[in-house]
Design brief:
By secondary structure, the protein is of the alpha/beta class. Helix content is about 45%, strand content about 15%. It has one domain (about 15-300): Alpha-Beta Barrel (TIM Barrel). The protein has helices spanning about 15-25, 40-50, 60-65, 70-80, 100-105, 120-135, 165-175, 200-210, 225-235, 245-255, 265-270, 275-295, and strands at about 25-30, 50-55, 90-95, 110-115, 140-145, 150, 180-185, 190, 215-220, 240-245.
Length: about 300
């Protein structure tokens, strides 16, 4: 069943990032690996008056045993129950399969990410172009990836290979695919930094920005120092306007519950009301901290323009 997106504050990724880039801040794309954490993310956005992105990846859908329809239903139900008024994007992160993208769009997602970054440039372009054409025909924004972003925990992606984004290839890629946003590999990684240290190659970002006006996305936002993030956001011509944050949220939830092992979504739903409230509170506070001290998107909802 198609979910009708009739909340005026639910916007596409393109609309949200246009505003962020103009304002010189980044919007957090927060992964709700457990559907009962969606309300906590929305509450944090509302409390800080920040635009917000709620996301989940194809691999997370599989790992935590969630369907796009289930995630979408919980998102829209939570929007209604929480009476959320700040701008919100519902985003499908790293996805390899066009059928999953179609399912997500059917479920009311307003943004999807096609990740064909493991393929050679021409194949990546062809796959991303097909996904973008389909999504755009449904009024949905598209994020794609060029280069490969490493990982430390293999929850979002399968490989820990890293290949920095080439600025010249970025120009060709964006022109060919018509992607609305581009995830770039400039030194960060998914997961928790244990031995390697995060870095952001600002010169590479400047070179990419000089060649293309596409909205830039940084994956692997958990653990990146705030001052480093500020440099990436404040680039002349528009810097990073979307930052993915996933691991920090789950770690705060597990720490609050004194757990070390991840759960399935069903296990999380089966928690007692008291445990669930504590877990939601921990996630909410983590999101608020990121909004206020890392992304600098607090109070930006008041300046958000919904006009085309």
């Amino acid at each position: 069943m198609t979910k009708k997106v009739d909340f005026k504050n639910v916007v596409t990724l393109k609309k949200a990032l246009e505003q962020a880039e103009k304002g010189g801040y980044a919007i957090g794309s927060f992964a709700a690996r457990y559907t009962d954490m969606i309300p906590a993310i929305l509450r944090a956005g509302e409390r800080t008056r920040s635009p917000i992105i709620v996301q989940i990846s194809q691999k997370e859908l599989n790992r935590y045993h969630i369907t796009p329809a289930e995630f979408g239903e919980k998102f829209y139900k939570s929007l209604e129950e929480e009476e959320t008024t700040v701008p919100v994007v519902l985003h499908l992160d790293h996805t390899k399969d066009l059928e999953v993208i179609k399912e997500a769009i059917e479920a009311g997602f307003t943004s999807v990410m096609i990740d064909a970054s493991e393929h050679p440039l021409e194949q990546n372009i062809a796959i991303s172009k097909e996904a973008a054409a389909y999504a755009h025909s449904k009024g949905v924004s598209v994020e794609a990836e060029l280069g490969q972003i490493g990982t430390t925990d293999f929850v979002e992606t399968d490989k820990d290979e890293e290949l920095y984004t080439d600025p010249e290839e970025a120009l060709t890629f964006v022109n060919e695919t018509q992607a609305d946003a581009l995830a770039v590999s400039v030194g960060t990684a998914h997961g928790v930094y244990m031995t390697r240290q995060p870095k952001v190659d600002l010169e590479r970002l400047r070179a990419i920005r000089k060649l293309t006006s596409v909205h830039l996305v940084l994956h692997g936002g958990s653990g990146v120092p705030a001052e480093m993030m500020q440099g990436a956001m404040k680039l002349e011509g528009g810097g990073i306007s979307k930052v993915n944050i996933a691991t920090d949220l789950e770690l705060s939830l597990l720490k609050e519950l004194n757990r070390e092992e991840r759960m399935t979504n069903q296990e999380c739903k089966a928690l007692s009301a008291e445990e669930k409230n504590r877990a939601q509170g921990a996630v909410e506070e983590t999101v608020i901290d990121k909004i206020e001290n890392f992304l600098h998107s607090a109070q930006q909802a008041e300046k958000f323009s919904y006009k085309s």
